[in-house]
Give the backbone structure.
Amino acid sequence: QFLKALELKKKLTMLNLQKVHAEIVLGSLVITSQGNYFISIGLGKIMLESTKYFAISVLSPIGQLLLNKTVGESIIFNQRKISIQEIY
């Protein structure tokens, strides 16, 4: 478990969080109609200043659907339409 934690930490430190993305890529913060997603590693729910974010991997089912999408596009996940509102 310790080695896995070190590997996850290494992946997080490699993300460029200063870059603004036109499309969803690894490191993007995505605001949608159904929630907020940080495309990084699969950590689950994170609360930050009373706002809920989900840290998800690009390999997760929803991560795969969101990858390379742009503002204004939508995906269907669990029979729900999710609209992409903002990407950071």
